[in-house]
Specification:
Radius of gyration of chain B: 18 Å
Helix content of chain B: 10-25%
Strand content of chain B: 25-35%
Shape of chain B: globular
Largest sheet of chain A: 10 strands, mixed
Oligomer: heterodimer
Helix content of chain A: 10-25%
Shape of chain A: globular
Largest interface: A-B, 53 and 59 residues
Number of helices of chain B: 6
Distance between the termini of chain A: 11 Å
Number of helices of chain A: 5
Chain lengths: 217, 233
């Protein structure tokens, strides 16, 4: 089974040279720590920065320099600032190649729900609806089941949707899964996790190829 | 020259009335118009519609206006940082219009640019799309979204000059640059107000024509929500 860093490490393998990448809050933020050093990648944060760097050293925090998670950050050489309208302009215009975000539920047709539990939790969608409606390549980073142990990979989302038919790939603590027109296609399984374990934790249609290699991280 | 400089924050908010619509710049607590918010709280103006990406935290930013029940309707994209807000929203005291962040920004920019409406794919197939016109472009579905109409826009910049020109710093530009000029009256507060001619015209982010009132802000707290650091190795 993968922990959060393991999930981030596996997703980092999807990041290619020359990519502009938007990372969501939570596990996706960790992906930046594991991107290969021999490739050139720029991280976009939708509050208005490209070329985001690591967290600042203590004492060097700047209130005017944060990421979309409101965390203090630094910039790397070549960074640029812009306003929120331009930020979502570059997202809608598909200049950002890859979006990595968390989810509460993903459906086998690629629908995603991650912003609201009616009557219980309403934090808002932030930039997630814009990101999932626009990006061509969307990877979801999440646990395979929720805290109650229920599957988060469903036939249909039960929670209010963030976007329809948009998720391409899912990396969980148990597996790497591709969203196909036929359903969830199992690509890889986490170390120590059997195909039967993944099947049991997946409510949606799971397509199991003859060979399912173990995730190498 | 047109006189834009006002002597105080009180003069800057003159004319605000109950029931008006305000835009407030900032992302989280980054780049919020701290001085204007403090003065609006003191003014007691109420039944407001506030358009802002976030609603501050319980004891800072727009949170201060929420605690005093000055806000009737909040238009925002993300309110997760504010418990008071979430309580007021779930209990129905506060009307909330949650709006995708890019749509919110573009609804400001459209107002700033004199465009009445635009199509965006964000929110298609979700509850955000309810009651909205949809249309297909290039094989993809879009929603028709309209420009905001606001009475006041309160924005905060790093530097400004007496002609109203603004320069922002870092990620504090965010919604401030989209809201300047997007309301009937734009009020800009700046950390440093300099005479016209002191700023390089090549470096201006928002030209002064977008700003009706400008003043030198004071006592900026610039609170950090998530102070996150790494340790030296």
């Amino acid at each position: 089974m993968l922990d959060k860093n393991g999930i981030a490490k596996r997703i980092a393998q999807e990041v290619q040279d020359g990519y502009y990448v938007n990372l969501g809050i939570g596990i996706p933020t960790l992906v930046a720590n594991f991107v290969r050093e021999d490739i050139s990648v720029e991280f976009q944060s939708e509050n208005g920065v490209l070329g985001m760097g690591p967290f600042p050293f203590e004492g060097a925090e700047d209130a005017d320099l944060i990421n979309a998670g409101k965390q203090t950050i630094t910039t790397l050489p070549g960074a640029a600032f812009f306003d929120s309208a331009m930020s979502f302009g570059m997202i809608r215009a598909k200049q950002v190649h890859l979006t990595i975000l968390g989810a509460m539920e993903v459906a086998q047709n690629g629908d995603i729900a991650n912003w609201k539990i009616p009557g219980v939790m309403v934090k808002g969608m932030g930039g997630a609806m814009d990101l999932v409606a626009s990006a061509d390549n969307i990877i979801v980073a999440m646990m395979h089941t929720n805290k109650k142990g229920d599957s988060k990979l469903l036939k249909r989302c039960s929670l209010p949707l963030t976007g329809v038919g948009c998720v391409k790939k899912i990396v969980t603590n148990l597996a790497v899964i591709e969203v196909t027109p036929e359903g969830f296609k199992l690509l890889e399984r986490a170390p120590g996790v059997s195909v039967a374990d993944i099947q049991a934790a997946t409510e949606g249609q799971l397509i199991i190829p003859a060979v399912v290699p173990e995730i190498a991280v | 020259m047109i006189q834009k400089v006002v002597p105080s924050v009180q003069a800057a908010i003159e004319g605000v009335q109950d029931g008006q619509t305000f835009m407030l710049g900032g992302f989280g607590l980054c780049g919020i118009p701290e001085n204007a918010i403090a003065a609006l709280v003191v003014s007691g103006v109420k039944n407001l519609v506030c358009i802002s990406n976030n609603a501050g935290v319980a004891d800072f930013g727009i949170g201060l206006m929420l605690v005093k029940h000055q806000v009737k309707t909040m238009v925002a994209s993300y309110v997760g940082e504010n418990d008071v807000f979430e309580q007021q929203m779930l209990s129905g005291v506060l009307e909330v219009i949650l709006t995708p962040q890019g749509t919110l920004a573009e609804k400001c920019r459209a107002a700033q640019a004199g465009i009445p409406a635009f199509y965006t794919p964000a929110g298609y197939g979700t509850e955000v799309a309810e009651g909205k016109e949809t249309r297909e472009f290039n094989g993809k579905m879009h929603l028709l979204e309209t420009a905001y109409k606001a009475d006041f826009a309160f924005v905060k910049a790093w530097k400004g000059d007496t002609a109203g020109n603004l320069i922002f710093k870092g990620t504090a530009r965010n919604f401030n640059a989209c809201m300047a000029g997007a309301a009937t009256i734009t009020v800009a507060e700046v950390e440093e107000l300099v005479p016209a001619g002191s700023l390089d015209p090549n470096q201006i982010h928002i030209p002064g024509i977008m700003v009706q009132r400008i003043f030198q802000g004071a006592n900026y707290e610039k609170r950090i929500e998530q102070r996150t650091t790494r340790t030296k190795v």
